[in-house]
Design brief:
Layout: H1 2-21, E1 25-27, E2 29-30, E3 50-52, E4 55-56, E5 59-60, E6 63-71, E7 81-89, E8 99-104, E9 107-114, H2 129-141
Antiparallel strand pairs: 1-3, 2-7, 4-5, 6-7, 6-9, 8-9
Helix pairs in contact: 1-2
Membrane topology: Lipid-anchor; GPI-anchor
Signal peptide: 1-23
InterPro entries: QVR-like, Sleep_regulator
Length: 142
Amino acid sequence: MGRWQCFLGLLLFAVICIYKSGAISCYDCNSVSDKRCLGDENNKLTDDMKKHCPERKGKPYSLCRKIKQVIDFEVNGLQPDSRVIRTCGFDDSQYANKCYQRSGFGGRQEVCACQNDNCNGSSALLASIPLILGLILLKINV
């Protein structure tokens, strides 16, 4: 029985490593061209908005972003507007898995970054797979 548990543990470890090293998938949309990108009760995100993120200049994308932009009044010919942008990202700075705000004359934005598949949507079950597999392994070893 000890060898079987060891084998399952190694298999689980390999699955988690493969899962984490693969390309990330994110929602990719802009509410200016597709109102579903708002992701509210009237505009739902759909599976066709999910995208596997390719590499950019040889560097793999490592996170998903949700950006809320607001232009409060006309600036440089841009009319007041608000939008939500969901896309892939690769900035692993101190902002990974966090939100931050930026503002300037006439506008502001909130940027949220997360590191699990499709996490820039309303929910993502796949984000819990490594945790679930780890709990199963713990239960087997108890």
